[in-house]
Here is the input.
Amino acid sequence: MVVYTPALYKKQGKKIPVVILGIETSCDDTAAAVLRGGTGILSNVISSQESYHAKYGGIVPEIASRRHQENIIPVVAEALERAAVTLDDIDGIAVTRGPGLIGSLLVGINVAKAIAYSRGLPLAGINHLEGHVLAPHLAGAVPVPNVTLVVSGGHTSLYRVAAAGSYELLGCTRDDAAGEAFDKVAKMLGLGYPGGVVIDRLAALGDPEAIRFPRPMLNEDSHEFSFSGLKTAVRTYIAGRGPEAFTEQGLHDVAASFQEAVVDILVEKTIRAAHAASVAAVAVSGGVACNSRLRLRMQERADREGLGLHVPPPVLCTDNAAMIALAGLHRITRARPFPFDLNAASRLPLGSRADEMS
Here is the structure.
């Protein structure tokens, strides 16, 4: 196995990796991106499968993996075309190796390994969570150390980020992720899937104080989260109200009140963690970071507390390959080992030994 290092590149007459092809297939989005340096996004192509999974009310793993098989080659080709480069211009390959759906991950990994092996390029297996942690850096300079909230359909975690590759988990959800709670509440209200966007839209016309839903673990002295109790409280409220909960105003008020409870928890926990970690900046990423109320409330609170806030544009909050390419750039230039027996991992805590050896 060849471990590529900056010194080895110079010895072999190769240029230090600058242009990275990123591939992301951890869940239901097939994505590929070309990144030049740390912030030069030459292309960022995302093919969504939402329409295929909506009728089932959630992601069906078998359908997701089959769609990835159909989409991956055209998506990679489109990313190269939009970037106006060919594989001859690529210096390294980065691909998500976990966490995620095994069948989906394997599609991306096998394509990445094939390209890297056939062209003699270094391969970086990336933790999907590291991609989200680094995503804000694609939109501009983010001070380190900072506290980063990763909040999505599968994850709700707080990290102290000392530098690229140096992450300390401060706390995470004990049960549902915030995005999962959004989707399940939307399903209770008959709003369809995915639910986060719909609830955000309905909440804009509702009263966030109409219903005082609980804020689980908000007053506990920890950086952990819990959303299952909040989800149950919404279900109980809906059952007690009956048809009244499904009137136009009723839907707006339930959506707004539920969203406000989630936002209260996320904002308070993040700011509290920032003070405890003695940092001057916070960042937010992941699909739920697209939520308009969360972005507004987090900015207001950060300003009040004298903290810098860094939230990337929505296209970089959801699953994308540009963030994977950025993580790959850092790992390749740090001379980490990238074996071609790289495999997928459905569970991969950020900072774990398995992650470090990828």
